[in-house]
């Protein structure tokens, strides 16, 4: 019997021909399968040809509508109960979308999780993950409303390696409940391509959702 994918991977893309192969290869290596959809923002660099050649499901938008709108279109066009939003320049570590990861949000009040996000050298993700510095160990928010990525630029060590509850998740790579996304109406498209994840996190927290770093 076939098993319906539990995770919809949505990748907004704009002129990402040089970046997508490494990401798609890393997703091909995932066991269990995912519902993958690339939402292309009017690329003119051959991205659509690449997606067709690789048989990747995609939505081709006529122009660049921004990250927030592309994510919203992708979520609308998929159906899995969990949504993993990924930037086109990410590479997924082996096993990162395994059942043990999705099981971390079994708590019904946990709206989403994010992994340890690293700064790898090179577009193909060929840098050494063990030596890479952090990009994000969870989003934090200051008292005056400024958001920042915890541990950005720091070595991987100590408390930054341990799972914990966090204020919010980084939009570059985060796993969200579809229920949360639907309840909040998705990303606010007026933010276009920056701060849309901060806004979603704030609205989610106000609505009683929690987030974790795993």
Number of strands: 12
Mean pLDDT: 92
Shape: globular
Biggest sheet strand line-up: 3-2-1-4-11-5-12-10
Radius of gyration: 16 Å
SSE string, helix = H, strand = E?
A: EHEHEHEHEEEEEEEHHE
Distance between the termini: 31 Å
Q: pLDDT under 50 segments (min length 5)?
A: none
How much helix is in the residues?
Answer: 10-25%
How would you classify the helix and strand content by structural class? alpha/beta
SS element count, helices = 6
Beta strand %: 15-25%
Tell me about the largest β-sheet: 8 strands, mixed
Description:
The chain is α/β, with parallel strands linked by helices. It has six helices and twelve strands. Strands 3-2-1-4-11-5-12-10 form an eight-stranded mixed β-sheet, with helices on both faces. A two-stranded antiparallel sheet has the order 6-7. Strands 8-9 form a two-stranded antiparallel sheet. A hairpin with a 5-residue loop joins strand 8 and strand 9. The chain is globular and about 45 Å long.
């Amino acid at each position: 019997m076939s098993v319906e994918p539990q995770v919809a991977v949505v990748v907004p893309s704009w002129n990402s021909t040089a970046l997508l192969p490494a990401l798609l290869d890393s997703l091909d290596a995932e066991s269990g399968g995912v519902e993958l959809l690339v939402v292309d923002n009017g690329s003119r660099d051959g991205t659509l040809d690449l997606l067709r050649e690789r048989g990747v499901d995609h939505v081709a938008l006529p122009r660049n509508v921004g990250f927030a709108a592309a994510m919203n279109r992708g979520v609308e066009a998929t159906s899995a109960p969990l949504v993993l939003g990924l930037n086109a320049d990410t590479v997924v570590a082996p096993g990162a979308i395994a059942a043990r990861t999705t099981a971390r949000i079994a708590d019904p009040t946990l709206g989403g999780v994010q992994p340890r996000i690293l700064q790898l050298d090179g577009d193909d993700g060929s840098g050494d993950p063990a030596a890479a510095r952090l990009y994000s160990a969870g989003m934090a928010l200051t008292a005056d409303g400024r958001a920042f990525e915890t541990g950005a630029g720091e070595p991987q060590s100590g408390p930054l390696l341990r799972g914990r509850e966090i204020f919010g998740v980084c939009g570059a790579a985060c796993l969200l409940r579809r229920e949360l996304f639907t309840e909040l109406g998705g990303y606010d498209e007026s933010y276009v391509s920056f701060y849309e994840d901060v806004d979603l996190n704030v609205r989610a927290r106000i609505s009683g959702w929690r987030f974790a770093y795993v």
